[in-house]
Please model this.
Amino acid sequence: MSCKFAFVLRATDTGRRDERVRRAVGRAVIGAAAASLVAGLAACGTPRPAAAPSASTSGAGGFTIGLLLPDTHTARWAGSDRPLIQAKVKELCPACTVKYANASADVATQQQQMDSMIANGVRVMILDPVDYKALRPSITRAHDAGIPVVSYDRLAQGPISAYSSYDSEQIGRLQAEALLKAMGHMTHEPRIVMVNGDPVDPNTAALRKGARAVFQGRAKIVKSSYTAGWIPQNAFANMSAAIAATGPGRIDGVYSANDGLAFGILTALKAEDVSPLPPITGQDANLGAVRRIVAGEQYVTVYKSFVSEADAAAEMAVALGRGASIDGIAKDRVSNDTSKEIPAVLGTLTPVTVGTIKDTLVKDGVYTIDQICTPALRAACQKAGLTP
Model:
C-alpha cells in the first residue's frame, strides 16, 4: 500500500517556548567580532607557556566562540539550542560573540567550518559533531592550536575539553521501561519493533544498549533498524518495511529513539491502517510529540531541558575561553578514545506520559496548556486534566 504525505517542521514543534528563547532570537548576534589568531592561541585552556593575562583572558574583554551544529532538519537546533547558547554567552560575557555554523548533516562541510574557525582565531568551540569519529582530526587540529572544544549533545572522539549532554543509556532504559509498562496488559510476550537513530551518532549505540538491556527476557524484538541522519522520512521507510515483514497485526509496541522518528513511525502505521496503534516511545519532549501523547498516538517522551544543556555548554565555553577552571561547573566525568576524565555536565531526565504532562512540562514552563491544547485536542486535554 502506498501513500503520499509531507513532513512539516512547524515553529510550534521546535522545543521550549520560554521567554529566554524569544529574547535570544530577537537579539541574535549578526556577524562576529574580530579576534587575532595570536590572542586565540594565548588564551586557551590547554597547557601553554605562561603569559601575562590580557584584558580578554581576565574577563574584561570579549572573544569569539564558535558554535557548530550538525543539521537543519532537527528542529531543536535552530529553535532552541542556538538561541539559548547565544543568550547565555551574552549574559556571561557581554563583549563576546558567537560565530555560528550549521553543517547540514555533511561531515566534510563541518570539517571545513572547523578549519575556518581555527584559521580565523576563535577562542573556543562548542561542537555537536555530524560524525563523532570523522571529526577527530579537526578536533585535534583545534587542540594543537590551543582552542578548547566543548562537545555538545554527542560525545566526540579526540582531545575535547568538556561535554554537555545527558546519559543516553539511561534514556534508553527509561524509554524501554515505559514501553513495557504500556504493554503490561498483554498475556503473550510483547513483540517490539526498534527504530534506532543514526548509526554514526554515539548516542544511538548508548540508547540501544540501555533499551535492549531492559527488553532482555521481557519482550521479543521482531525487527530492528537504524535511521540515517535521524530523518523522519527514513523512520517512515524503516517502519513501513517492518510492517511488511511482520504483518500489521503482529507489532505490540515500537521503540522510537526520539520524537522526530516517532512522527515518521506514526505516519507509516497510519498509512498501513494499523489499528489499534501500538504504543510508541520518544525523547526531547517536542511540542508535536506532547500533542501526540495527549491524542493517544505516542505513549511517552523523555524530557531533557534544552536550557540546562545549553547553559552548561555556554558556561564551560566562556570559562575555557578565559582560561579559567570548569571544575565548579562540570561535576561529572565521561570517557572517549582520548581520555577517561573529561569534565561533563549530564542533565536530569524525566519520562513524560499523558498523566504527567501538567506536573512536568507545564509546571516547568516548557509549554502552556494553550500551546498544547489545540481546538482538535480540547476533549482529550480535558480528559487528561490539562485545563487552566
Observations:
- The first helix runs from residue 19 to 26.
- The chain has a mean pLDDT of 87.
- The chain has 14 helices and twelve strands.
